[in-house]
Structures are given as structure tokens and as C-alpha cells.
Amino acid sequence: MYKIFFLYFFLIIVHILIKPVNSSTLNNELKFIKNSSKHICKALIGKEKLNIEWNKVTKNYKTLYHKKTKFYVTSSIFQRQNKINLITLTFKLKDPIIQLRLDKNCNFQNIRIIIYDNRKNPISINTLSNDFKTTLSKQEVNPTFNHNLKMTNNNLIALVDTGVNYTLTKLVNNLAIDKHGKIIGYDFWDDDNFPFDSDPRRNPFYPRHHGTTVFSVLKNEAPNTNIGIYRFPALKMCKFKDLIEEIVEKSFRIVNLSMGSKNRNDWECFFKSIKKYKNLIFVVSAGNDKQDIDINPIYPASFKLKNIIVVSSSTKNGQLGRDSNFGAENVDFLLPAENVSVIDHRGVNSYTGGTSYAVPRMSALISRYLTKNQESSIDDVLNFLKKRSITTDKTVSKYGWIPDPSDDYLIN
């Protein structure tokens, strides 16, 4: 009897992985997961005892697995003032399949399922109704590029980030496009030609989106510049070598890099690569840890190379941003970036801030300068930026504050 049940369960899961979830039989296929979630949730809050079919392998039911199917379930309980606010359950085989969010009474609040193709690559993240019967929304993970665009020139900026939502029509006019009408760029994370904005590392059911908002700042402040999109190699950082070579081959002049980490080893291959290309300008964020990066280094911002320009965020009055890093040696300039107008991943106009957005403001300023002064060297660019800056607290940055980077003062 048990063998028949588990064979049936296994077939259900395989079917879920390859079949669209808006099937009329969805509720039956997910019945096991639905019932199991209710049971595990009630066990977590103390209303039921955990069924003997489930084994606890760590404290507080942090991870559970079904002893016959090796079906793992990760649980998290979120509390506010010692009261349960949210319970999440994530079901996995080898890859994540479904995540359920339940309230303190174990009622379903939100259900998301990842749909995979036959090669186990994710196709979409679908939101289901609380009865598991209806697909409420579908978020594509790696859509194709379907815009009919002409080849561009003035391709100056390479955006290295989590990708860009290139399906948004309001952004496409600033994409760098080749003679075949394709995006100039690459996804060095998934190793394909579709650098779509997604960072699933923290939660694959609710991926983080960052590159689209950064791209929108470049679009707003460098409207005559075209931008290549490169999704960074988060899982194999030494692929930065290939990424940098690709950027050089495509003749970009500026690399927008709104990222960093404390682990120098993550960036060693990057460091070795960019030393070879001294005419390529890297604009890098100082980070948002409220610390002195001369003492507590952040990479690549703390690499001492002439072609790295490190920026941090200020208020509109020139004061250091609330969470912004600083450093008399390792931070070059401050730019106002605490309340920046952006277009988010959904295509919605909103506001955000931090050092990540000081970077595109600086990249856009440099690109406008290079558009008018095409033969300029890095020394010329630095001299221009120094002339644009106002000396402020010298413990915060090396050269000072640029009050309005959207202004073309001294460019002409």
C-alpha cells in the first residue's frame, strides 16, 4: 500500500514539474502538498503532533523530510512581539518546487510554484489561489527579447548587475542593439543570451530585482547613450574574466557596477582582468554598511586601481547618506542618491536610494562628458570630475561632493 502511495506521489511531483499549473486537475495534483502543509503548520504551532511519516532532522522543525520520498520541507516562523505573524513552508526535491505562506491559524495566504522545463531549468514563477485551483499570475523567469529594434551607436555603458527587464517598452530605446536586432549583452549567470533581471539566491520564489532600477537611472540621465546588459556570474565569480573581455570586445567605455562584498576572494579574478584594460572606466559603489571602507574594505571598491571610480551616496545637501559607506582613501566622490526616481521591475515609477544609485548617476555624467569629448583619457575624465566637485569632509571622500550630476556644467 505504501509503495503504491509513494509511487503515485512521485508521479504527481514529476507531473507538476513539467505541466502548466493552470490545469483543471491542479487541485488534485497538489492535494498531498496542501494537506501536508496544513499538518506541518499545525505541528509547528503546537496544535497537532507531527505525524510519524515525517522525521524532524533539526531543532524547531527547521527542516523536515518525508522518510520515503526524501522530500524536504524547510519551515520558517516570523514573529512580532512574540506573536506569530507568518509561517512559510518550502517544498523541495532536488530543486525548490513550491512555497506556501500561512498565517498564525495555518490559513493559506500566498502560494508560489516554480515551473521547470524538461532540463530542470525554471520557466516561470506562478502564484496560485489559496484553494490551489487557479493560477492568479505568472512571472516569466527568462523571457525572450521580442522587440524589433535597429542597430544602435553611442554604446558607451555596460551595466553589470542582476539583469534588466527588457520586456518593458519604456526602457528599450536605451538598450544597446547589434546589427541583427539583438541585445548587446549576455547572462553570465545562466550562460545564455537573455540577461533578464532576477536574483533568486535569497528566495527563488520571490527573486530580488535590482538591475532594472539602476538601468532606469542611466536612461533618465544619459538619454542619448545606449547600454549593454550583463547579468553578473554570481555562482562562478571567475567568469568575470570572460565578462570583462566581452565588454572590451564590444567597445564599451564605462562599466556600471552597483555591487560589492566583503570577501576579496570573490573578486580576485575581476581584479586581475581589469588591470589589463586601463582605459576601461569602472564606476563602483562604496556599499551601504555605514562604515569606513578604508578600515573595513569592500570589494571591488577597495581595490586601488586608477580606472576604478568609487562613489557613495549623499543627501541633496551634501551630507553622507544614512547607510552609506565612506573613506578618505577609497571613496572618490559623493553624489545625491538618497531619493532617486526610478522605474522598477514591474514598470512602475517609484523612488529609491543608496550607493547603488549614486553609481548610475556618475556613469551617466561620465557618458555625457565622453559623448562630447570622445578622445578623452581617464585622466581627463578624473580632472573633469574633480572640477565638478565641492570639497567637503575629507574623512568621508577623497575629492568631495558633486551636487547635481544631471547638470552638463563644464561638459561643453
Strand and helix map with partners:
Layout: H1 2-18, H2 26-29, H3 31-44, E1 54-56, E2 63-66, E3 71-80, E4 83-92, E5 96-102, E6 108-116, E7 122-128, E8 135-140, E9 155-161, E10 185-187, H4 211-221, E11 226-231, H5 240-249, E12 254-257, H6 268-274, E13 281-285, E14 308-314, E15 333-336, E16 340-343, E17 349-352, H7 355-372, H8 378-388, E18 400-401
Description:
It is globular and about 75 Å long. Helix 4 (211-221) packs parallel to helix 7 and helix 5 packs parallel to helix 6 (268-274). It has 2 domains: 2-140, no CATH class; 155-401, Rossmann fold (3-Layer(aba) Sandwich). It is of the alpha/beta class. An 8-stranded antiparallel sheet has the order 1-2-3-4-5-6-7-8, covered by helices on one side. The relative contact order is 0.08. 22% of the residues lie in helices and 25% in strands. It has helices spanning 2-18, 26-29, 31-44, 211-221, 240-249, 268-274, 355-372, 378-388, and strands at 54-56, 63-66, 71-80, 83-92, 96-102, 108-116, 122-128, 135-140, 155-161, 185-187, 226-231, 254-257, 281-285, 308-314, 333-336, 340-343, 349-352, 400-401. The chain is built from 8 helices and 18 strands.
Q: How much of the residues is beta strand, in percent? A: 15-25%
| Largest sheet geometry | 8 strands, antiparallel
At the fourth level of CATH, the homologous superfamily of the largest domain is Peptidase S8/S53 domain
Apparent shape: globular
Uncertain stretches of 5 or more adjacent residues: 1-26
User: Count of helices?
Assistant: 8
The first-to-last residue Cα distance is: 81 Å
- Computed CA radius of gyration, to the nearest angstrom: 24 Å
Q: How confident is the prediction overall: mean pLDDT?
A: 90
The tally of strands reads 18
| Strand line-up in the sheet with most strands | 1-2-3-4-5-6-7-8
Please tell me the total number of domains.
Answer: 2
The H-and-E topology, N to C, reads as HHHEEEEEEEEEEHEHEHEEEEEHHE
Looking at the structure, the CATH topology of the largest domain is: Rossmann fold
Q: What is the CATH architecture descriptor of the largest domain?
A: 3-Layer(aba) Sandwich
The CATH class designation of the largest domain is Alpha Beta
Helix content: 10-25%
Quickly give the structural class: alpha/beta
